[in-house]
């Protein structure tokens, strides 16, 4: 295990065969394939409308683990992956939550790679701590994976009342032969959450505040029922991304693409084809 993930080895899934290149970056505890249905819809019925790349961020999915969390290292790993996938080309990068932070840092650190940026329900700021996720972390740690007989057994034992959240978190459970393991780097996330207000995952890297603003078009999507994007975040967002257009989806929560997939697809398709 190294202190930073191998920048060229993030796991990816491709959807579509022609058209503009689009990279999707998931949130904490997610993985690239969470965006599969959106990517299929964006790429069109014959796959010719967009070439989508669903990326597993470091410490998630089938990508390598790191010893310490760093948004800069995550962004650099994504940059290396995109360069390897399409040398010399630029991308529309879509990032949700943690992936939205990574996408913003990517655009600021590697602007030549990002032709357009879509940030979903997150702002370029520190959120204080991972308090919102502490219950999920505890539930995952308390699952006796050494005793599990089947995935059904895991579902029965997992102490999460919301079936959608349960399915989302248990997608990280993988079987190796007769044993089970967490595919996500749960120890790293739990250690970061234990830092409280010093959490790196919840924070925003101060060093990027000194970088030039990103001058490409930005679509900033927020869930109307989410608490992650506030009115006062607009000034900070536009300082880094002056060509930002905000779009709030009424009735959607933090997982906007799950709550309102049709609206997200329509917005992405319009944005890809020049709407700003």
UniProtKB/TrEMBL annotation:
<dbReference type="Pfam" id="PF00561">
    <property type="entry name" value="Abhydrolase_1"/>
</dbReference>
<feature type="domain" description="AB hydrolase-1">
    <location>
        <begin position="20"/>
        <end position="122"/>
    </location>
</feature>
<dbReference type="InterPro" id="IPR000073">
    <property type="entry name" value="AB_hydrolase_1"/>
</dbReference>
<dbReference type="GO" id="GO:0016787">
    <property type="term" value="F:hydrolase activity"/>
</dbReference>
<protein>
    <submittedName>
        <fullName>Alpha/beta fold hydrolase</fullName>
    </submittedName>
</protein>
<dbReference type="InterPro" id="IPR029058">
    <property type="entry name" value="AB_hydrolase_fold"/>
</dbReference>
<keyword id="KW-0378">Hydrolase</keyword>
């Amino acid at each position: 295990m190294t202190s930073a993930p191998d920048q060229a080895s993030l796991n990816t899934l491709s959807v579509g065969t022609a058209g503009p290149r689009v990279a999707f970056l998931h949130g904490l505890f997610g993985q690239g394939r969470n965006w599969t249905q959106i990517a299929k819809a964006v790429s069109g019925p014959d796959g010719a409308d967009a070439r989508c790349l669903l990326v597993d961020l470091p410490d998630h999915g089938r990508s390598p683990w790191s010893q310490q969390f760093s948004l800069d290292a995550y962004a650099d790993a994504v940059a290396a992956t995109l360069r390897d996938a399409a040398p010399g080309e630029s991308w529309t990068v879509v990032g949700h939550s943690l992936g939205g932070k990574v996408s913003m840092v990517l655009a600021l650190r590697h602007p030549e790679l990002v032709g357009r940026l879509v940030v979903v329900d997150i702002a370029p700021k520190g959120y204080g701590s991972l308090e919102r996720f502490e219950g999920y972390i505890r539930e995952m740690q308390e699952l006796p994976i050494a005793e599990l007989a089947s995935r059904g057994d895991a579902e029965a034992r997992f102490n999460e009342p919301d079936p959608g959240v349960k399915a989302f978190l248990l997608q990280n459970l993988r079987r190796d032969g007769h044993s089970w393991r967490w595919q996500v780097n749960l120890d790293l996330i739990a250690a970061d959450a234990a830092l409280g207000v010093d959490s790196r995952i919840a924070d925003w890297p101060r060093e990027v505040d000194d970088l030039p603003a990103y001058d490409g078009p930005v679509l900033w999507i927020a869930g109307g029922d989410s608490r992650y994007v506030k009115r006062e975040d607009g000034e900070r967002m536009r300082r880094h991304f002056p060509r930002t257009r905000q779009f709030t989806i009424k009735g959607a929560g933090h997982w906007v693409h799950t709550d309102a997939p049709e609206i997200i697809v329509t917005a992405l398709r319009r944005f890809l084809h020049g709407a700003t």
